[in-house]
């Protein structure tokens, strides 16, 4: 059954209907085959872009839909429930567009945002490096000013959409100051000197290509610097707060899909002359799964509403990312258990959901990092 959502406006209700129609007809029917063949879903992103769904939280002035995060995240959850790789991709793209949308100059916004949020361009977020994951301050990719250009050299790792993206929001060092020497740049995917490693062979999200990105004397206009030199750390961390909410919503969508499969199977599967859904042990398991999904949804919506009100939400975003992704791992694992032997086969999607859930506890900051963020915010407020 569709999730009974509480949405703030008639416009958002209409948007939900559009998203559900696209999920049912354009996404869900292709998910299993594309994941099996590890095919990047570029056409799916084009479809969502044409429908205006790649710029949901950004200003209408530049082609976005100007929806509150409370609405955007619920639409994202619906997409992830139909096809997790696409949901994660929309979250990544939205986070990638954040730097220009919030800190770009008016010239940059007018020049770049319409295609970024209008679906013509797909973005990638190039922050992590082989030796700089959770420790952003240790990144070594460098950008050197040369007249009216910057020249970038280095390597980024674990980049979603690598080799498929049309632009890369890239964080590079412009001075040796660990925290204030990092700057943000808009790098076109066609830039000379940009190359890519072989796609990572992953446990799940196999339709979402992840690669190294190499910068070999990549020259870009100085006008592609986002913000001022040294603003990169602040931009990256601010974008990650919002990006963590995107992953939280995707995780809940995945968990909801797993719960739906498990509940449907439990009503159909007969043992000892009864549907297994009639047994109290199964009912309790499904109840715990449902409680985890609803708790996760409430947690990310609370953080989103704080964001929409302009209030701080760093702690709440970290809590949402932690709670929702841990819930996804548990619920998808339990779904496999409900299906028994069939859950371990590829005849049903439960095993794929379980494989896809694991990485949600890792990217956009591991859940151990979320605990550090939460504890620091708690202690700071005492």
Write the layout of secondary structure elements.
Layout: H1 10-37, H2 42-50, H3 69-82, H4 84-103, H5 106-118, E1 123-126, E2 142-146, E3 149-160, E4 167-173, E5 182-188, E6 194-196, E7 210-221, E8 225-226, H6 232-268, E9 270-271, E10 274-275, H7 280-308, H8 314-339, H9 350-360, H10 367-380
Parallel strand pairs: 1-4
Antiparallel strand pairs: 2-3, 3-7, 4-5, 5-8, 6-7, 9-10
Domain Acyl-CoA dehydrogenase/oxidase N-terminal: 9-120
Domain Acyl-CoA oxidase/dehydrogenase middle: 124-218
GO molecular function, one term: acyl-CoA dehydrogenase activity
Instruction: Describe the sheet with the most strands.
Output: 4 strands, mixed
Give the CATH class of the largest domain. Answer: Mainly Alpha
- Global morphology: globular
**How many H/I helices?**
10
Task: Bin the helical content.
Answer: 40-55%
Beta percentage is 5-15%
Q: Can you name the CATH architecture of the largest domain?
A: Up-down Bundle
Strand order of the largest sheet: 1-4-5-8
CATH homologous superfamily designation of the largest domain:
Butyryl-CoA Dehydrogenase, subunit A, domain 3
Note poorly predicted spans: none
Radius of gyration: 21 Å
Order of helices and strands: HHHHHEEEEEEEEHEEHHHH
Distance between the termini: 44 Å
Number of strands: 10
Domain Acyl-CoA dehydrogenase/oxidase C-terminal: 230-378
GO molecular function, one term: acyl-CoA dehydrogenase activity
Domain Acyl-CoA oxidase/dehydrogenase middle: 124-218
Protein name: Acyl-CoA dehydrogenase
């Amino acid at each position: 059954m569709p999730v009974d959502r509480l949405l703030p406006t008639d416009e958002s209700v209409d948007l939900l209907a559009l998203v559900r129609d696209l999920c049912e007809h354009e996404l869900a029917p292709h998910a299993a085959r594309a994941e099996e063949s590890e095919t990047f879903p570029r056409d799916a992103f084009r479809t969502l872009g044409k429908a205006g769904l790649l710029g949901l939280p950004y200003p209408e002035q530049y082609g976005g839909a100007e929806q509150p995060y409370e609405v955007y995240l619920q639409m994202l959850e619906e997409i992830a429930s139909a096809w997790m790789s696409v949901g994660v991709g929309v979250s990544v793209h939205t986070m990638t567009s954040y730097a220009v949308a919030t800190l770009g100059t008016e010239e940059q916004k007018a020049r770049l945002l319409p295609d970024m949020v209008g679906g013509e361009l797909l973005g990638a977020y190039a922050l992590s490096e082989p030796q700089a994951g959770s420790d952003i301050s240790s990144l070594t990719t460098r950008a050197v000013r040369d007249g009216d250009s910057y020249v970038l050299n280095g390597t980024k790792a674990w980049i979603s959409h690598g080799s498929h993206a049309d632009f890369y929001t890239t964080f590079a060092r412009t001075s040796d100051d660990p925290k204030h020497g990092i700057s943000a740049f808009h790098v076109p995917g066609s830039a000379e000197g940009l190359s890519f490693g072989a796609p990572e062979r992953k446990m799940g999200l196999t339709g979402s290509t992840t690669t190294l990105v190499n910068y070999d004397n990549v020259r870009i206009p100085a006008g592609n610097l986002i913000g001022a030199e040294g603003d990169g750390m602040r931009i990256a961390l601010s974008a990650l707060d919002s990006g963590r909410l995107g992953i939280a919503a995707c995780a809940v969508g995945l968990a909801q899909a797993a719960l739906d499969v498990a509940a449907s199977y439990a009503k159909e599967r007969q043992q000892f002359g009864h549907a297994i859904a009639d047994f109290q042990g199964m009912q309790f398991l499904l109840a715990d799964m449902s409680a985890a999904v609803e708790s996760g949804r409430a947690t990310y919506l609370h953080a989103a509403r704080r964001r929409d009100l302009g209030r701080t939400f760093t702690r709440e975003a970290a809590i949402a990312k932690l709670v929702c992704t841990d819930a996804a791992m548990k619920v998808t694992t339990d779904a496999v258990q409900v299906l028994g032997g069939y859950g371990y086969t590829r005849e049903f999607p439960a095993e794929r959901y379980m494989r896809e859930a694991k990485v949600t506890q890792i990217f956009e900051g591991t859940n151990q990092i979320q605990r550090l963020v939460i504890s620091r915010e708690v202690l700071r407020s005492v």
